[in-house]
Design goal:
There is one protein chain. This protein is mostly helical. It has two domains: about 120 residues, no CATH class; about 100 residues, Receptor-associated Protein. Helices cover about 85% and strands about 0% of the residues. Helix 1 packs antiparallel against helix 6 and helix 5 packs across helix 7. The protein is elongated, with a radius of gyration of 25 Å.
């Protein structure tokens, strides 16, 4: 069987899996609406027998699957772990086929690794964005809790009220904590889980204050108002720092794009050059060193511009 037939079969298989993944993603978006009807249980049972649902069960049983599910929930990406894995696998296969014919077979492995890294980087970026949005809502959260406790409400009730008043992601996270307390979880355990889902210095200070107050009492209203003012100042500082570092972040990504783009430009100017280079050990060594330097430059710029707020 020739390479052209293999590439065609891989492409058809990838497109089929991609269409299946998109179909499952679209159906998952309307799952809550279907559950509201009486036929929802039958629909869930049918879906549980589908191959992708069975794959989702297998993925969630593994340690990596559990970690992936937790990261998807933290990032706010509303897809199942199996769908994420399938889409990543399909994109990796497509990248392998494309790079195999566009550049060289040796680089197709690096292309697949790059696709996996890109998916994980996207997931990490979504997590950071949601954490930043949650951190930006902390001053308002502290004010709502302060007003509620000043009115004589208990802390669990104040958290439940704040969940209704605040937008997502703070509202969604507080609703999760409130549901946990309604099911019997203690206040200390519920807010500790919240801190684990949204780790930051700001939420750590706020939750530590709430825990100390719930255990030993104290001037909670005064403390929350002081924390609200402090968090407001830190929010402005974070926004200024992110604006300053925006150019550095763009530079680091430009380095990585230049490294990959240079290969395509070289192959465009002289077709077959990259494939010829990979046919010799010295050529592979030169390509490896060049790509490694670009990757090192990317991570070096990112590391030097990383500031812990």
């Amino acid at each position: 069987m020739s390479l052209d037939i293999i590439a065609l079969l891989l492409t058809v298989l990838s497109l089929g899996i991609a269409l299946l993944g998109l179909r499952e993603y679209a159906e998952g978006a309307f799952q809550r609406r279907r559950l509201a009807s009486r036929s929802a249980l039958e629909d869930v049972e049918r879906r549980g027998n589908r191959p992708l649902a069975q794959l989702d069960t297998l993925v969630r049983r593994t340690d990596l699957g559990k970690k992936l599910e937790g990261r998807l929930e933290t990032s706010g990406v509303r897809i199942r772990p199996s769908v994420f894995v399938v889409l990543m696998a399909v994109a990796a296969v497509v990248a392998i086929v494309f790079v195999w014919y566009a550049l060289a077979p040796v680089l197709s492995v690096a292309a697949a690794a790059g696709v996996v890294a890109a998916f994980l980087a996207y997931l990490n970026r979504q997590e950071e964005r949601r954490k930043e949005a949650f951190t930006a809502q902390l001053p308002e959260l502290a004010r709502v809790l302060s007003n509620a406790t000043q009115a004589g409400l208990a802390l669990p009730t104040a958290v439940d009220m704040a969940a209704d008043e605040l937008d997502d992601p703070a509202g969604a996270e507080l609703r999760t904590a409130a549901r946990s307390m309604h099911l019997g979880q203690s206040f200390e355990s519920a807010v500790s889980d919240l801190r684990e889902r949204m780790p930051s210095r700001e939420i750590g200070v706020l939750i530590s204050t709430l825990l100390v107050s719930s255990r030993s009492g104290g001037a909670l209203v005064t403390a929350l108002r002081s924390i609200s003012q402090t968090l407001e100042s830190r929010k402005e500082t974070r926004r200024e720092m992110l604006t300053i570092l925006g150019e550095t972040t763009a530079t680091s990504w430009a380095l990585l794009v230049m490294g990959v783009g240079s290969l395509f430009m070289l192959n465009f100017m002289q077709p077959g050059t990259v494939r010829t280079m990979t046919e010799s050990g010295w050529g592979i060594l030169v390509l490896g060193i060049g790509l490694a330097l670009f990757v090192i430059g990317f991570f070096a710029v990112r590391r030097m511009s990383k500031i812990e707020f």
